[in-house]
Amino acid sequence: MGVRLMVVDDHRLLAEALASALKLRGHRVLAAAAPAAGAADLVISRAPEVCLLGTATPAEPGMFDPVVKIKRERPQVAVLVLGPVPSPRGIAAAFAAGASGYVRHDERIEGVERAIMKARAGEAAVAPQLLQGAFSELLNPAAQPDDEGQRLLQMLTPREVEVLVRVADGEDTRLIAAGMGIAPSTARTHVQRVLMKLGVGSRLEAAALAARTGLLDRAGPLENRGPEPS
């Protein structure tokens, strides 16, 4: 017997594709909705057996507030978080909010379906190794300080930090190159590496992430930074 489902994700194409695949496997998909705002109210109003709730940033503060609201208003609804490869902190946050499991974006449809069936049965629907890390984080939260800005800062080299600060200040490639005493091609390479390490697709996203996590405050001023050595 099929499961009565909802698929809610910021990316409409992903939500609709997953909903179509699940319909073909005999499940009753009530809706495939895109907006992040209002997602909880939509789920509460339709009251499915299982909801697949998408997120792009599972470690971001407040990301699982919709899960909390859904479980408060409709405790019988099993919520499965659909997201990227998570950190133990992200998994822990999902479970702490009341989620029944976590399904990675790169999971095969068979794996998604198994997770749905487990969630409906009241079981934890998450890979054992991810679950172990999540429980360790929940039991020992002090072992991994919740400092996203510091974590991101440690991923970048000093030169990449300077590039990020300049990007956040609105400098284009030409100004970055001039300010650091490097070639524009080298500046472009630094920018691309920063975007890749931060997991964002544009300079604007990088600047917003740095500002939100406090990374810019930790990076300090640009004064007294000399040209890059040849």
UniProtKB/TrEMBL annotation:
Domain HTH luxR-type: 149-214
UniProt keyword annotation of DNA-binding present: yes
SUPFAM superfamilies cross-referenced by the UniProt entry: C-terminal effector domain of the bipartite response regulators, CheY-like
Annotated SMART domains: HTH_LUXR (SM00421)
UniProt keyword DNA-binding present: yes
Keywords: DNA-binding, Transcription, Transcription regulation
Signal peptide: none
Domain of life where this protein originates: Bacteria
Domain named Response regulatory: residues: 4-120
InterPro entries: CheY-like_superfamily (IPR011006), Sig_transdc_resp-reg_C-effctor (IPR016032), Sig_transdc_resp-reg_receiver (IPR001789), Tscrpt_reg_LuxR_C (IPR000792)
Protein name: Response regulator transcription factor
